[in-house]
Write a structure and sequence with these properties.
Layout: E1 2-8, E2 11-17, H1 21-34, H2 38-50, E3 57-58, E4 61-62, H3 81-88
Antiparallel strand pairs: 1-2, 3-4
Helix pairs in contact: 1-2
């Protein structure tokens, strides 16, 4: 059994969850393979299952999205395939 702490702002809601031994061992194994920890792997699995945006957590550390800030957010213009080909050469 392990405890999940759901946080929203400063509120913390603990929830005890029992994992069958084979699932727990698979999570431990995946964490070791990724050089990560159980918390990061569990969060990754849950985000994938819920269809959450990818790459919000990497190696147990949260990142702020967007990763690259734009000087002019939302200022993209439509481009034709030919314009893209010209840029890419």
């Amino acid at each position: 059994m392990f405890t999940i702490y759901a946080t929203k702002g400063e509120d913390v809601s603990p929830s005890n969850t029992h994992l069958p031994e084979p699932i727990f061992e698979a999570l431990q194994s995946r964490a070791a393979q990724q050089g990560s920890n159980m918390q990061a792997v569990i969060l990754q699995v849950i985000e994938n299952a819920l269809g959450a945006p990818p790459n919000t957590v990497k190696n147990g550390r949260r990142v702020q999205l967007p990763l690259v800030l734009s000087k002019h957010p939302g200022a993209l213009r439509s481009m034709t395939g030919a314009e893209i080909d010209d840029i890419l050469g």
